[in-house]
Design brief:
318 residues; alpha/beta; 5-stranded parallel β-sheet
């Protein structure tokens, strides 16, 4: 009988989500019991297809995939990624590469799955790496989930650095500010792994060359996909020396919180004006003794990168 903790990922399955998925599958201390899909890097249906194909490529087609909400809480229509996002992640979200295989399973409803999860399981690790729409909807449908969920680690936000969509806003929060604000004000314990730390962990081409040298289809796919991503960073952020590992770091910090140093804080999200989408300390709760969120501000980059490469190679079967 396995004693591994249960893990649920909530992915808008683009390139760094695919890397996070590989990291999770290569982590022996957890069992991936489901993937909930979202929108952001791609639309939600593309996220479903990408996730199913990746799970098959990595040899885990048994992991169930659940279709999440297809639009922000206050939107009238489904989300479609803008042209800038399609350039970064490719038209299919995976750098124009395709992992092969077919999508064999029809996805089930994400909210039904999440409600049953919080009612029937204890100490599940839940990591959203896209907008927080599914989580906000879960809290609205099942308010008791705030007490049932352990601390949720999410990739998103920027507290001490500029945003990557506007000067204030990070992409995941910007895609649904109302959802992020609802989650951060709900009382749910959270850990924010945002641009403050994800821009400190960078993957270079020597690592992808290693994956390609393994000689397996999954290694070649992952290398080609990630080299596309690195190429975007080389054009837009040439001083970084590679691509930021946004989503993998969130998964890593959920499994091993000692990788990051955190500031306890109560946060809100600005919903109006030029600062819409900004994550900021809530002035109404600054003096509250209890802090709902841990904001990651420092990271052990060397240790994380070593573990990331080891676990991805384990997922690739090497």
């Amino acid at each position: 009988m396995s004693c591994a903790k249960k893990l649920v990922l909530d992915l808008d399955t683009g390139i760094d989500d695919a890397l996070a998925l590989a990291y999770a599958l290569g982590s022996p201390e957890v069992e991936l019991v489901g993937v909930v899909t979202s929108y952001g890097n791609v639309d939600v249906d593309t996220a479903v297809g990408n996730t199913l194909a990746l799970l098959e490529l990595f040899g885990h087609p048994e992991v169930p995939v659940y279709r999440g909400l297809d639009r922000p809480l206050v939107s009238d229509g489904p989300f479609s990624p803008p042209a800038g996002v399609r350039r970064i992640h490719g038209e299919n979200g995976l750098g124009g590469c395709w992992p092969g295989g077919r999508c064999h399973a029809a996805p089930r409803d994400a909210l039904d799955f999440l409600v049953s999860l919080v009612e029937g399981e204890d100490d599940v690790i839940y990591v959203p790496t896209g907008p927080l729409t599914n989580l906000a909807a879960l809290i609205e449908r099942a308010p008791a989930s705030v007490g049932a969920l352990s601390r949720v680690t999410f990739m998103g936000g920027a507290l001490t650095v500029p945003g990557n969509v506007t000067a204030c806003a990070e992409a995941n929060v910007c895609n649904d500010p109302e959802a992020a604000d609802a989650v951060l004000r709900s009382g749910l314990p959270t850990r924010m792994v945002g641009l403050d730390v994800t821009h400190q962990v960078v993957l270079a081409r020597d690592r992808t060359a290693r994956w390609r040298s393994l000689g397996c289809p999954a290694g070649r796919f992952l290398a080609d996909m990630t080299d596309h991503y690195i190429g975007i960073y080389e054009r837009n952020n040439p001083g970084m020396g590679g691509c930021a590992l946004h989503d993998p770091l969130a998964v890593a910090a959920a499994l091993d919180p000692s990788l990051v140093g955190c500031l306890p804080a109560n946060l809100r999200v600005d919903l109006e004006g030029v600062t819409r989408g900004r994550t900021v300390c809530d002035p109404e709760r600054l003096r509250d003794a209890e802090k709902d969120c841990e904001v990651a501000l420092t990271v052990d980059s060397a240790r994380f990168l070593g573990e990331f490469c080891d676990r991805v190679e384990r997922a690739l079967g090497s």
